[in-house]
Every structure is written in C-alpha cells, then in structure tokens.
Amino acid sequence: MSVWFAATFRRWASIFAGSLALSTPGLAQPTPAGPIPITVDFAKPQGTMQPLWAYFGYDEPNYTTMKDGQQLLTELAALSPVPVYVRAHNMLTTGDGTAAFKWGSTNAYTEDKKGRPVYDWKIVDQIMDSYIKRGMKPIAQLGFMPEALSSHPTPYRHHWKPGDNYNDIYTGWAYPPKDYAKWGELVYQWVKHSVARYGEAEVKTWRWELWNEPNIGYWKGTPEEYQKLFDYSEAAVHRALPAASLGGPETTGPGWDKAADFLKSFLDHCVRGTNYVTGKTGTRLDFVTFHAKGAPKLTNGHVRMNMATQMNDIQKGMAIVASYPELRQLPIILGENDPEGCAACGVQTNPDNAYRNGTMFSSYTAAAYARLYTLADQNQVNLLGAVSWSFEFENQPWFAGFRDLATNGVDKPVLNVFRMLGMMGGQRVAVANPQAMSVAEILNQAQNQRPDISAMATLAADGHSAAVLLWNYHNDDLPAPAADLDLNLQGLPAGQALVQHYRIDQEHSNSYAVWQGMGSPQAPTAAQQTTLAQAGQLALLTSPAWVSTQQGQAKLHVSLPRQGVSLLRLSW
C-alpha cells in the first residue's frame, strides 16, 4: 500500500467514522486523527490560580461526626495546601442529631414552657470542632428554622428516601419564623458562642450565609420575607462580630428565569431597598452566592451529560452580579456547582446518575472547574470558590451511585481530580490548543459532537514547580480510542525538570473499576477493602522521570484515554 493511498484511506475512514458517529445512536464521537499539539508557556501568566475547588458541601451535617465522615474530612484537608471550606445544611434544624437522607439536626434552639429560648450548642460544636481541628473553615449556614420558631411547624421531621417525591422534604423547617426578633437573637447567640469558643481571629475567617435555595421549596415564605430574614440575620451577625462575612441568597441556577428574578430582587434590596431592621436604605452584603447545575439524561442506553446548563447558570449569575456597580467586585461563591441536582438520588432510582462512580464524573469535573476561571475572567468578577455538593453517605451499599466522594470509606475517582487540583497553584499560564473548546461552544452543546480535549497549567509562586492538567472529556459515556497529545512546554527556567505523571482512567486511581473486577461485592473481605482503599488513591501512570530542556523548552507525548484525566507535575 503506497504512503499516499494509506494516508487517503485513513482520512476517508476518519470522515466516515465521524459521520457514522454523528448519525448512529450508541457510537462514541471520533477521536481526532493525529496528535493534538498543545503549547504551554510558563512565561506568560494569565491570572491567579484561585483555589476555587477547595469547597465541599452536603445536606446531612451529622455525617460529619460519623466514622467515614471523619475519615473523608481528614482526606479533604490533606489534599489542599489552603484551608478547605465546608458548607452543610440543617445546622439549626430541630432533632436528636440522627442523620438521614437530606436530613440532619442539632437541636440548637428549643423553648421552655414559657416560650423562653433554650440554646444547646453541643451537636453544633461537635460538627464545627471536626472542621476546625483539621484547619478547615465553615461556611456556617443560618438554617433551617427550629421547630419552636417555625410559623408552620407541623409536620416537621420528614422521612424522605430515594425514589420518593422530592417535594416531601419541604416540611415545617422551611417556613419563616413566627418571631423575627427571636430568630435574630438565635443568630446572634450562635456567632457570639463561636467567637467565645474559637476566638475572634478564627471566626473572622469563616463565611456565614443565610438559608439554601429560597426561590424553591426550601423557603415557604415570599421573597420579601426572605429579605426580611436576611436583614435580621445581618444585624445579628455583625452585632456579634462586626468583621464577620455574611452572604446570600444561595438561589438555584440563574439560568432559570425565576431564580434570576429572585437573585435580582435580593440584590436590589441590598443595594437600594428599605432595611427591615434599621429603616435605612440598603443592607450589608459581604459576598454573593448562587448555584449551578448540569442536566444528565439516559439516552439510547447510555448517560449523556449536559455541562451547558451548568455553564449557563454560571454565566447568567455572573452577569447579574456584574450589572451592579456597587457589587461587581464582591466575592462570588457558587454555593453548589454540580453535574445535576440531587446528591442523595442513587443509580437505582435515577439511572441517569450512573456517571457518578467512574471516570465520567472525574473527567466532567476537570473540564467544568477549568472553565470557571475563563468565565470569571470574561465577566470580570471576583469568583472566590465553587462548592462541590458531594461528601459521603454513611452505611449505604457500595457504589450505590450517590453523588459522593467516597463509598464506605473508599475514595471514588472524582476525589482524585480534587487531589490533582490541590497540586496546582500560583499563576495560571497561557495554553494554546487548536482543539480547545470555548465556553460559547460548550453552551451550544459542542461536547455532544466532539470530544473536549484540553489543558490548564500553572506555575507555582516559588518558581520551582509547575503543573499541567489534561482531560479527554465527552458528554456521551461511550468508549472511544485514546487521544494522542504532543505537549510543547515553553518558558521553563531550569535545564532539566522532574516529571511526575498522575492519571485517572480505567486502570489508575479508580476504585470502582477494581470493585467491578472483584465481582462487585456488597460485603468485601478485609483484604478486598484494603485493595479498594489503595485503588482509590491518586496513582502515578509511570515512575517519575527527568526531562531535559533546551532554551526553556521541553516536549512530551501523552496518550490520554476517553474520560481520562492526567496531571503532569514538573519540579526543578
């Protein structure tokens, strides 16, 4: 076969395969023919690598103090060179502290027979102590409504489980207070107690926030009643600690018009509304929060992700904040930043969530978090963090497909992406890639049509190390050939560099694949559990190796599987 004929045959075969994949359900989109050239220039800084990824959250605060919860908190603290922020619901909910799906309680507030407040911080302190002793920082959520304060307390405790109607969770804890002054005093007492227990210097580093998703069933009041609750909360927080940081409103994704309207109404109130406590104009707001979610679905027998809806939420929310000159430089925290909306909905009841156990979740996370920096730059806003609403579900079946970071104490592949991001810091640097997918293309569903293969890179502040994150993502969870990448690294200040290549794929950093190889046991032996725990850690693809540079340049070749993620860490 002549060279010309072979090249022509490969070219037409590639075109045919692409056409077939675009028109035939159940076939993966083709991998680009030939190596993809990616140039990283460490001498061209693009902005600070803000640790947006060092934020995690969950509905069930009582998992915090349980065995697997304690282990996971330790791992989260260890993977980050900066303090990790943790956000949990139900911090003021009434109950005995027993955890359940989408439920938790602390019994922080009750009343005696004469209606006088009784404060009990025991469970709250156990949760907060778990964070503080690991150097973590709370995003301390003022919510939900204690039973004794609720204007509609019955029924109060819900017993939702996966598969039930989601609206069943919105019970007495979701209602406004019957006495706003008593609510304000509860908030004041919590902040005051925190300062007494942990010290003013520590509590000044926390983030306080009011409620969760008040534009839907989590808040059974009106937008105006939420604004009133915020004013009373703000007065109480800053009466106890003037230097404290308080934010809101934690709405659902602003890509939904009703959520956008609620966010605008809240920001309008903070800027120019009449304060319900002082009667003056405006309310102090220290940071802005809203959520962003994707929308996977089961199609033709496989999961198809939808990152576009998540990016649209972020884009719309940032644009809203930027439209207020008084607020555009305030920090923004994406209070929940996830591929979809229900962490406690497992695969058995929601088969469209089958992406969660394996490498689809990890590659999605790498591609999504990398775009946060682009969106912040484009909108010229101060993005501080993005909460991955994923923790763990204690004493549940192995790999039940919840949106969690670990199962029964064994880390899932997605947690290793955050370990990779924890090795990146300093300055983001320039990356040139002809295959790179823009945010605009993602919004137009380009990830359904072709693989999203790209990179993000950083140079450490000390100038002695660098990192390159690579991903090969596609919205369709279907097999496809690996992509060949030719990396041209420029601006390296040393004559040689030690390269450590970390990898997440079917064979590396993947406890789920190992568990499947065992026959998917629901009662793994002690030896199997040890093997699974080892498989859940971030693994090197190859042994570390030295690479020589010439005039500050080095060339590397990487073969990256579909839904694979690599981190190249260079040090000198």
UniProtKB/TrEMBL annotation:
GO terms for molecular function: hydrolase activity, hydrolyzing O-glycosyl compounds. The active site is at E213 (proton donor). The keyword Cytoplasm does not apply. The keyword Signal applies. SUPFAM superfamilies: (Trans)glycosidases, Glycosyl hydrolase domain. It comes from the Bacteria. GO terms for biological process: carbohydrate metabolic process. Residues 1-28 form the signal peptide. Residues 38-536 form the Glycosyl hydrolases family 39 N-terminal catalytic domain. Keywords: Glycosidase, Hydrolase, Signal. InterPro entries: GH, GH39_cat, Glyco_hydro_39, Glycosyl_Hydrolase_39. Belongs to the glycosyl hydrolase 39 family. This is Beta-xylosidase.
